[in-house]
């Protein structure tokens, strides 16, 4: 920022005075270089006096060494001790990103990691009707249909989420998004190289629904979010439908619902080298519960981060099991029909009833019960030729009836994959299971096509019927 005709000292005093009088606190020290846009939706400065979200996108130029905690994760037996593996990853994501002082609104400002770990966001999540909001960089994701979280849930809404990658993942993203003035470079992914070994991904999902609808969301961990009014039960009479971005927004408190993790671990050979995990927020956990150690010494609401308890882990899609079960309205966590060899679900009796995924493959509470963590992420390719789930257009397959054997066409979503293998080989480039990277490229190409009035050959195969890639997508009928 330049203040003509006054000294640098005077300029700093003016900025400090503006902040002190209630203007939005600016992050000049976090964003000295103007690069990718940070967010899209936010109240005007006259209505907000706190900090605003700043994208962490100063990607490392050279491939960094893995953090010691990552080396520890990569040496842990994820098949023999899946819950222990998941907890190591969760606690690594927490390290240095949680202040522990009781003010959770200041947590996960990635530039300020106190443990010396570098974390990064994916650019180009700001664009479009589901673009980032400016409190914490949350994007609007799939619907939370009534009863999908709990039998007491009568209202529907949508999840709002933010994800981030560690230093190794950030280096890979930087190979695609080399600077804010250039389009994405797909060379690394065309070559099938994908994300660097030791990449760790974390993602939080929030909901405006409270414990009156979802009992395990008692004692919530809350952030502010600038979200669509139509996603707030009782605030808007109409459903959201197909949004343009111009619909009314408002600031709401949202409750932490879910955490997802991914680790690029070459030992997971049948999952393209990825291990997937998910956690559910359980505010009913007793004091001193089994998942609380990472929050020891935290005060107030900060200790609630450790109410994220593991749902399970998966390292393959179990393609040999084609039996169908969709637990759309969970009153209990259903076990699969037949054996699942590459999914492990937490047997802790404190785990709330989960719908899980197709025939009880791993999925979190905000995910569609006819999918799985891996089946969704396997469609991370550019262009998005196939939908994220088989029942969505352009594929539009009928969901098989419970207790029947699914067709080979349906089971295409529940394959295992070699590293670098695209879901639609020959028509798309694998984005190595990264839906965020897929969406960022899709957003950029749609934006450039719109302002230039032209088409790109590289996106032609995925430019037919709408094939949404946001989590959850359309609710089940």
Sketch the topology as an H/E string, one letter per element: HHHEEEHHEEEEEEHEEH
Largest sheet entry? 9 strands, antiparallel
- The helix tally amounts to 7
Structural class: alpha+beta
Cα shape:
globular
Strand tally is 11
Distance between the termini: 52 Å
Helix content: 10-25%
Q: In angstroms, what is the radius of gyration?
A: 22 Å
Low-confidence stretches: 1-23, 473-477
Total discrete domains:
1
Brief overview:
With 477 residues, the protein is of the alpha+beta class. It has one domain (9-462).
How is the secondary structure organized here?
Elements: H1 8-20, H2 68-74, H3 82-94, E1 119-120, E2 139-144, E3 157-166, H4 167-176, H5 187-190, E4 200-207, E5 222-228, E6 249-264, E7 274-281, E8 308-314, E9 343-345, H6 373-377, E10 381-382, E11 429-430, H7 435-452
Antiparallel strand pairs: 1-3, 2-3, 3-4, 4-6, 5-6, 6-7, 7-8, 8-9, 10-11
């Amino acid at each position: 920022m330049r203040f003509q005709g006054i000294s640098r000292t005077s300029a700093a005093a003016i900025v400090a005075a503006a902040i002190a009088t209630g203007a939005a606190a600016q992050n000049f020290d976090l964003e000295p270089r103007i690069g990718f846009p940070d967010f899209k939706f936010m109240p005007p400065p006259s209505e907000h006096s706190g900090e605003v979200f700043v994208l962490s996108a100063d990607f490392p130029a050279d491939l960094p060494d893995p953090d010691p905690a990552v080396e520890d994760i990569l040496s842990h037996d994820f098949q023999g001790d899946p819950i222990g593996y998941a907890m190591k990853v969760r606690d690594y994501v927490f390290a240095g990103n949680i202040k522990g002082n009781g003010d959770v609104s200041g947590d996960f400002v990635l530039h300020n990691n106190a443990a010396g770990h570098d974390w990064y966001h994916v650019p180009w999540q700001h664009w479009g009707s589901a673009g980032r909001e400016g409190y914490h960089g949350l994007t609007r994701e799939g619907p939370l249909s009534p009863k999908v979280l709990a039998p007491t849930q009568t209202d529907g809404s949508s999840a709002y989420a933010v994800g981030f990658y560690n230093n190794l993942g950030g280096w890979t993203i930087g190979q695609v998004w080399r600077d804010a003035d250039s389009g994405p470079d797909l060379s690394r992914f065309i070559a099938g190289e994908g994300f660097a070994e030791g990449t760790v991904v974390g993602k939080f999902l929030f909901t405006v629904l409270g414990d009156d609808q979802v009992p395990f969301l008692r004692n919530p961990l809350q952030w502010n979010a600038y979200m669509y009014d139509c996603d707030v039960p009782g605030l808007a009479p109409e459903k959201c439908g197909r949004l343009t971005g111009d619909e009314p927004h408002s600031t709401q408190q949202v409750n932490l619902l879910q955490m997802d993790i991914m680790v690029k671990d070459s030992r997971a050979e049948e999952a393209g080298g990825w291990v997937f995990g998910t956690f559910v927020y359980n505010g009913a956990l007793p004091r001193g519960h089994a998942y609380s150690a990472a929050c020891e010494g935290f005060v107030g609401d900060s200790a609630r981060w450790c109410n994220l308890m593991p749902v399970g882990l998966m390292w393959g899609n179990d393609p040999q099991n084609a039996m169908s079960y969709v637990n759309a309205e969970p009153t209990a966590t259903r076990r699969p029909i037949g054996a699942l060899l590459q999914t492990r679900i937490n047997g802790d009796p404190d785990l709330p009833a989960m719908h899980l995924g197709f025939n009880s493959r791993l999925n979190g509470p905000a995910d569609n019960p006819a999918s799985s963590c891996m089946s969704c992420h396997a469609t991370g390719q550019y262009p998005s030729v196939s939908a994220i789930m088989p029942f969505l257009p352009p594929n539009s397959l009928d969901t098989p009836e419970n207790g029947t054997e699914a067709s080979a066409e349906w089971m295409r979503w529940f394959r295992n994959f070699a590293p670098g293998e695209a879901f639609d080989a020959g028509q798309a480039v694998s984005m190595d299971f990264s839906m965020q990277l897929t969406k960022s490229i899709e957003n950029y190409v749609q934006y450039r096509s719109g302002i230039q009035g032209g088409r790109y050959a590289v996106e032609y195969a995925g430019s037919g019927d709408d094939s949404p890639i946001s989590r959850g997508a359309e609710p089940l009928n």
